[in-house]
Design goal:
Keywords: Plasmid. About 30% of the residues lie in helices and about 20% in strands. It contains three helices and five strands.
Length: about 120
């Protein structure tokens, strides 16, 4: 089954649109181009198989409790400082995955680090 990827509102949708627009117009910074490529690759894997080994997908219970539905974390990067993580849910419909967050890996999840992550809403 192939999943339909949706960007959460407002944060994820705004960020993705900004990256796409600047990439297409060739006005993207090197750091943003790197993020765009890594995120695009992760989204491709996610749409094909949310449990792809390269994504290291797992549930984050503190975000699940806060958001009111299972929140999953997948890797964009690994073994690098400030390695980015993508947070997502199966919603709003069967076959949809909504990206609700993109942040560096929290330094220490024992001190409420996941509480500081801004999560987008599911578009209606």
């Amino acid at each position: 089954m192939r999943f339909n990827i949706i960007m959460g509102v407002p944060y994820m949708d705004e960020l993705w649109q900004k990256l796409q627009t600047s990439y297409r117009s060739k006005s993207i910074s090197k750091a943003d181009a790197n993020l765009y490529k890594k995120w695009g690759k992760a989204l491709k894997f996610l749409s094909e198989n949310p449990k792809h080994p390269g994504l290291h997908t797992h549930e984050i219970s503190s975000l699940t409790n806060r958001y009111g539905m299972k929140v999953w974390q997948s890797y964009l990067e690994n073994k690098t400082s400030n390695a980015r993580r993508m947070f997502w849910v199966y919603a709003p419909n069967v076959g949809d995955i909504t990206i609700i967050g993109l942040d560096p890996h929290p330094e220490n999840n024992k001190n409420g680090a996941y509480d500081r992550i801004d999560l987008s809403k599911i578009p209606k």
